[in-house]
Each structure stands twice: as C-alpha cells, then as structure tokens.
Amino acid sequence: MSQHYFNAVHRGDPITVLLGWDPLDHFFMIVERREPAPGQDDYLFISTGAPTLDDLRVTLKTLCIPVPRVMFDQVEHDRRNGLGSRVVVYAADGSLPH
User: Fold this and answer.
1) Tens of pLDDT along 5-43?
2) Which of 44, 50, 66, 93 gives 20 to 30 Å between its CA and that of 9?
C-alpha cells in the first residue's frame, strides 16, 4: 500500500491524515489523533476500501480538515502506476519532501 502522511489540526487536536492506494484496487484513509485525551477516540475516521478519492475528499471536507491537493494527486499517481510501497510525508505547508 502506498502511504501519504500529512499532519494537521482538527478542533485543537493534532492529527495525522494517512491517505493511500492499495494494489488490491482501492483507496484508503485513516485520520488519527496524535495525542488523544483520556477517554477520547484515537481515530476520527477509518476507511479501508474507498472506491474513489472523491469519496475521501468529501469526508475530509465534512470534517473540516484541509489536505494539500498534491497529496490527492500523488495518490492518484500511485494508482495509475501501480505503486504499492511508496511512503511520502508532506511538509507542514503541504509541499512534497525534497
């Protein structure tokens, strides 16, 4: 599975968005709190079989979590090229690492 990570903040909580492509023919996304408070769920969202990236974009928009467009573009690149073991961690400004 390709793995694309972006750190953000959701309602004051630091979170990590993991978006990727599984060569078994689906996209996936996990939105996880990095420092959950006692009694707080670790995960805001888990999808292990989304048919399209647009489904996941809508979810992030509903959760009010901005993710750089390039992240979606790169996951689509992984799908088109059959890349299943790529790991990318995006900078705070959303840019690709050098």
Assistant:
1) 999 999 999 999 999 999 888 999 999 999 988 998 999
2) 50
